[in-house]
Amino acid sequence: MLTLGELAQKLDATLVGDASTPVDGLGTIQSATGSQLTFLANPRYRSFLENTGAAAVLLPESQQDYCPVAALVVKDPYLAFARASAFFEVAPQPAAGIHPAATVDPSARVADSACIGPNAVVEAGARVGEGAVVMANTVVGAGSVIGDACRLWPNVTIYHGVTLGPRTIIHANCVIGADGFGFAFNGAGWTKVHQVGGVRIGADVEIGASTTVDRGAIEDTVIGNGVILDNQIQVAHNVVIGDHTAVAGKAGIAGSAKIGAYCLIGGAAGIAGHIEICDKVQVLAMSLVSSSINEPGTYGSALPVDKQSRYRRNVARFRNLDDLARRVSKLERSSD
Amino acid sequence: MLTLGELAQKLDATLVGDASTPVDGLGTIQSATGSQLTFLANPRYRSFLENTGAAAVLLPESQQDYCPVAALVVKDPYLAFARASAFFEVAPQPAAGIHPAATVDPSARVADSACIGPNAVVEAGARVGEGAVVMANTVVGAGSVIGDACRLWPNVTIYHGVTLGPRTIIHANCVIGADGFGFAFNGAGWTKVHQVGGVRIGADVEIGASTTVDRGAIEDTVIGNGVILDNQIQVAHNVVIGDHTAVAGKAGIAGSAKIGAYCLIGGAAGIAGHIEICDKVQVLAMSLVSSSINEPGTYGSALPVDKQSRYRRNVARFRNLDDLARRVSKLERSSD
Amino acid sequence: MLTLGELAQKLDATLVGDASTPVDGLGTIQSATGSQLTFLANPRYRSFLENTGAAAVLLPESQQDYCPVAALVVKDPYLAFARASAFFEVAPQPAAGIHPAATVDPSARVADSACIGPNAVVEAGARVGEGAVVMANTVVGAGSVIGDACRLWPNVTIYHGVTLGPRTIIHANCVIGADGFGFAFNGAGWTKVHQVGGVRIGADVEIGASTTVDRGAIEDTVIGNGVILDNQIQVAHNVVIGDHTAVAGKAGIAGSAKIGAYCLIGGAAGIAGHIEICDKVQVLAMSLVSSSINEPGTYGSALPVDKQSRYRRNVARFRNLDDLARRVSKLERSSD
Fold first, then answer.
1. Is C244 helix (H, G, I), strand (E, B) or coil?
2. Homologous superfamily of domain range A2-88
3. Which of B260, C131, C142, C287 maximizes the CB count within 10 A of its CB?
4. Contact list, B214 vs chain A (CB under 8 Å)
């Protein structure tokens, strides 16, 4: 629990209201109760503001007059709310120590302040840093390095030869360092290319549940600092993702693709292998990037849904689009 | 093993044949043996019916005359087959009790009739209901509630603050309650919005393998009663899915999308964030719903494959489709 | 460590250089060091060849003259490199034996030469073959059969009734044998069709991380010999995949689809249910196969990205493509 005065100080906000009012949680602007903090980022929601029952609202100066309760005036209310959210986190913080049901190889080095949960496994030569948390049933492969203050949620698999920078969060059931999809055709079938590279993940990265990041074929797969990956993303071998790039759920990035910094990759987008995307490119949801992008900006390709009858007719026409274009050219020639 | 007479009674079917014939399993209409039950739902397969070697066939009255073996006459053969399938389930039913290799926090409450498998972990304050099964290596987070007769298959991760209604089935390696993908840009990088909402899942829900359902940012992510989700679906934070909606494999539902009841969402379909889909909407496979749908019916957007040469030509034309349309308008004007 | 002479012999290569040179690893042609082996498969990279610092290069005879270091001349350098990669594998090879923290049912049969890792679970009646490795926290369901020399990485879930042929590799967090998505609508909701089939996976198969293969509804789901599946693929119930077919990451194959041998299915491609694809078909990334393909060749349907402004205009035109085609027909009629 924090008072509004304490919150104003921590968030560098100007408080309009009673500094002693206690806040014990977060709420939406429509449903926050009298002990909860909320925010107004979009002026469209002003009617909600005018009726909010929150203890206080993080808002920009322009909206202050419409606030019926205490206001915490800031430049960027959503960012301030993000900062405030850390004070009201509900996730349990496990205590340091190795659970008796964990299996830690004698050659592994686990910091005294780290937490190793029940049935977690830390294999030979692995290192777990200060304050790191390896939760229940997670496996840290041989020789891998879990940086200080990292958190690995349950059922994560970290293969051998993976390095995580400090403060990186890996959500449940992720797999980091599985073999890349490398095979040579031998005339009758596939000969495996053993994947001897590793994975290097930077500091302050967050990786969503069930995302997979493959190890490199020869050199490492690399994820930069501050990258955020959502759930169920596939990052193939030797992909490089630049610092602070955000990738939404279910995107797939094929082998050796190189994505710049500060990119925004939409949900279920596909990035082809061996291409480069420069910094500050936004790819819309379900779009396919099949060749390199050298200019910042927004790119898309997915068609949105239509009613089935019209969709079916348009699809049938698409099948003959080249023919249609030729017919138009012919008409143009004959009308000249 | 059941006799045809017992089956007829349980399924409310009219038996044409010997009530004492034993049935010990299920078969397809082409390959069922003389002790297996099968069904005919589609009259197209009548030739298979005429040659079936099954013990008995669930079929509608209209097909009865073509059945060379015993018939169980019902209105809806596929539904009757579904009901019958429960009698021949092959999945092991684990016995009640806490396995010695499980880790159950002293503050958790586990019903005596529940089963907690080896290496399963039940964290502080969690509750596991009567007859519920938590299989090997599954983790139930702090304070979460597993309803009566739920079944959690192995390697599932349930985070803290998740509630499952009774009789809900969660297949292996699902993740329920991981953090939603919420971040505020701070000018240099991303500040995490701690996700303090939970997940509420109704009764009689079934969730396929490796599906992920994120916890809400502030309020809960909600899945209604009787919802069925296939494998590898991503349900983002604060999504609401109405009762009895079915979602096929690999679909992705972005944050705060609200899907009605009795919808059918096709495989690998994408639903954008912050939109609403009304009841009884069908979305075809691999389609993108990028704005709200207010009218029941079927919607699609995916293009089906074509031979590479024609596909490439049509794609090239699509790239200039706006130009083509302008050229057609010009021709129309000049032909007036 | 191997000498170039030993490598030449093992790979059936012609060595041009000093047979006693030691090689202790693999490198890319740009960055290999003086103790590493590399390869040149594509003549486009000849400039890298001319500057390589590798110990030796696997290359075709045509490139031999441009090689500044030792050459191992072969017909297919990439295939030779694949074979060589096995000699430099970095994955730990666990020792035989059952870890004290594993849980093996007394009725299961585990070969003496097999390895069962910590917290792995082998259920009643299951069998684990000679030299097979079941890594940490993996579960082998009741009655399932793990062939000789298979390797199951951590956190894999094998349900009951699954059979893996010899030398098959299953990467971390895969789920094999979860229930197929079978439900009958009962007027008010969904009645589960209990899935009583199993899964049969052939020999020398490799399945990438977090891929799911559902059990059959009545008969088995079948994956042929030598099939290679990448990460996060969904294989629905009763799918059949022919020998040596390769499927890239995030593809989805719906129920009862039958895919031939030697097919190449691209990343995030979707295959509809109940269709057949003949042998030697290539499906491009993110394409939708919604009807059967009876002719070998390459097929695609995905649109590649464009700049947002042009993309939006073209999408709007696509919505009226049928109308545009009608307008062109009308122009043609009036110009006759």
1. coil
2. MurE/MurF, N-terminal domain (3.40.1390.10)
3. C287
4. 208-209, 231
Q: Which CATH number fits domain C97-299: 1.10.10.350, 3.40.50.300, 1.10.10.10, 2.160.10.10?
A: 2.160.10.10
pLDDT score, position A43: 87
Query: Measured between CA atoms, how close is A58 to chain C, in angstroms?
Result: 33
Q: Are C90 and A161 within 8 A, CB to CB?
A: yes
Closest CA to B88 of B166, B27, B163: B27
Kindly give the confidence (pLDDT) of every residue in chain A, 336 residues in length, as a single tens digit, with 9 standing for 90 and above: 999 999 999 999 999 999 999 999 999 999 999 999 999 998 899 999 999 999 999 999 999 999 999 999 999 999 999 999 999 999 999 999 999 999 999 999 999 999 999 999 999 999 999 999 999 999 999 999 999 999 999 999 999 999 999 999 999 999 999 999 999 999 999 999 999 999 999 999 999 999 999 999 999 999 999 999 999 999 999 999 999 999 999 999 999 999 999 999 999 999 999 999 999 999 999 999 999 999 999 999 999 999 999 999 999 999 999 999 999 999 999 986
- B314 vs A321: CB contact, 8 Å cut-off? yes
CB B83 within 8 A of CB B10: yes
C244 is an active site residue: no
Residue A31 contacts residue A37 (beta carbons within 8 Å): no
Q: Is the ipTM of this complex over 0.95?
A: yes
Q: State the amino acid at position B49 in one-letter form.
A: L
Cβ contact, residue pair A236, C226, below 8 Å: no
How far apart, in whole angstroms, are the C-alpha atoms of residue C247 and residue B209?
19
Q: Spell out which residues of chain C touch residue B78, defining contact as CB-CB under 8 Å.
A: 184
> For residue A101, what is the DSSP state?
T
Contact C290 B311 (CB under 8 A): no
DSSP bridge pairs for C163: C145, C200
In this complex, which chains have at least 3 CB pairs below 8 Å with chain A?
B, C
Residues of C in contact with B286 (CB under 8 A): 270, 288
Minimum CA–CA partner of C101 in chain B: B101
Pairing of strands C306-307, A297-300: antiparallel
Phi, psi at residue B278, to the nearest 5°? -75, 175
How much is the mean pLDDT over chain A? 97
| Residue ranges in chain C assigned as alpha helix (H) | 4-11, 46-50, 77-85, 308-318, 321-335
**A318: which 2 tokens?**
């698409």
Q: What is the 3-state secondary structure (H, E, C) of B89-140?
A: CCCCCCCCEECCCCEECCCCEECCCCEECCCCEECCCCEECCCCEECCCCEE
State how far residue B189 is from chain A, nearest Cα, in angstroms. 6
The confidence score (pLDDT) of residue C43 equals 87
Residue-by-residue DSSP string for B196-221: ---EEE-SS-EE-TT-EEEPPSSS-E
For residues B259 and B245, is the Cβ–Cβ distance under 8 A?
A: yes
| Beta-carbon contacts of residue C336 (< 8 Å; ≥ 6 apart) | none
How far is residue B8's CA from residue B12's CA, in Å, rounded to a whole number? 6
Helix (H/G/I), strand (E/B), else coil: C187: coil
* CA C318/CA C61 separation, integer angstroms: 51
- The minimum CA-CA distance between A111 and chain C, rounded to whole Å, is 22
Mean pLDDT of C152-165: 98
